Amino acid sequence: MRILVTTASRHGWTRHVGDVVADILRAEGHDVTRQVINEKDVVADVLDLAQVDAVVIGGSVYTKTWLSRATTALELALASGTRAYTFAVGVLDLTPDPAGRRWTAPRSAGNAGERVVFGGRITRDGLSVREKSLLAAVRAKDGEYTDWGGVTAWAQGVAADLAHASAPA
Ligand SMILES: Cc1cc2nc3c(=O)[nH]c(=O)nc-3n(C[C@H](O)[C@H](O)[C@H](O)COP(=O)(O)O)c2cc1C
């Protein structure tokens, strides 16, 4: 199936997770297009859902919310009836359920992995003073918190779900 993997990231880790997810979907035999939604992009202008069967949308979590670019991408996917799979990247003990706030999870049947959240990475390098003080306020420590086995299993689940969806009845 033709799949668009799109991500919204501020410091690059969600982009990296999206690359890994895209590689796994390719390895499972899908035709994958990889896209990044940048901060200044108008999401409706850059998100081309017309040529794909499904979209995977990843976004990082800041101040307890999924990046709004990812939320907008999901809203557009749902409005166009495109099968959507979503993941968030954050630090689980800071925001265990980003979906609880501004995340409209896909509701249609067959969407694997609703509301999946992967651990991200925190590094003070390259952060603004404001960002560093936010991290200090919540006592977040630098480190990589990504469970790559979980990412792989989820992406393989998406691939299997899509293969199932496209199989003749
Ligand atoms: C200033 C700042 C605020 C953050 N706030 C949250 C938060 O509220 N909840 C959360 O789960 N993770 C939070 N994080 C962790 C990020 O989601 C994590 O570092 C993630 O890997 C960032 O992804 P990105 O590199 O794609 O932007 C924060 C990180 C920073 C630097």
Please sum up the structure shown.
With 169 residues, this protein is an alpha/beta fold. The protein has helices at residues 13-27, 43-46, 68-80, 99-102, 129-137, 148-166, and strands at residues 2-8, 31-36, 54-62, 65-66, 83-90, 116-119, 121-122, 143-144. The two termini are 16 Å apart.
Description:
The protein has one domain: Rossmann fold (3-Layer(aba) Sandwich), CATH 3.40.50.360. By secondary structure, it is an alpha/beta fold. Strands 1, 2, 3, 4, 5 and 6 form a six-stranded mixed β-sheet that branches. The chain has a two-stranded antiparallel ribbon with strand order 7-8. The two termini are 16 Å apart. The chain has six helices and eight strands. About 8% of the residues have low confidence. Helix 1 crosses helix 6. 38% of the residues lie in helices and 24% in strands. Bound molecules: flavin mononucleotide. The site of flavin mononucleotide has 23 residues, from helix 1, strand 3, strand 5, strand 7 and helix 5.
Q: Which descriptor suits the 3D outline?
A: globular
- Integer average pLDDT: 88
The domain tally reads: 1
Quickly count the helices.
6
CATH architecture, please?
A: 3-Layer(aba) Sandwich
Q: CATH topology, anyone?
A: Rossmann fold
Q: Tell me the name of the CATH homologous superfamily.
A: Flavodoxin domain
**How many E-type strands?**
8
Ligands bound to this protein structure = flavin mononucleotide
In CATH, what is the class?
Answer: Alpha Beta
**SSE order, one letter for each helix or strand:** EHEHEEHEHEEHEH
Helix content percent band: 25-40%
Provide the β-strand percentage band. Answer: 15-25%
User: Structural class from helices and strands?
Assistant: alpha/beta
The span between the termini is 16 Å
Largest sheet: 6 strands, mixed
Radius of gyration over all CA atoms, rounded: 16 Å
Uncertain runs are 101-113
